[in-house]
Amino acid sequence: MALFKKKEEKNILDMVPFHVINNFTEKEGLITLNLPKFKKPFLSKWLVPNNKSEFIQIHLDKYGSQVWRQIDGKKSVQGICNEIRKSAVEGEEIPDLEERSAKFITELYKSRFINFMEEKL
Known about the structure:
Layout: E1 17-19, E2 24-27, E3 30-36, H1 41-47, E4 55-59, H2 62-70, H3 77-87, H4 97-110, E5 114-116
Antiparallel strand pairs: 1-5, 2-3, 3-4
Helix pairs in contact: 3-4
């Protein structure tokens, strides 16, 4: 008799991500995530100097920006990969698209920028 239940392995390509961070800007096709330096707004007022930003900015590259735009809480990671593949310029080959997307989305999840929808039973 096992004391611990074995966690069910889930395929990340079947999971549906959604944004947790909704404060982002887009400039010249690239996404910049704006994260507050402090969770409590009054701390920013007192601890951030007047000429400094109260946000930490995370700049995504071209590929990361494409993935971020596709995350809508409706498409699975596999669906996101399919959309990126469709929108690729003719002749442009994206090697290991699913693997790269899975790694990138996993990093977004670890950094708490996104989360995944609960499975419907």
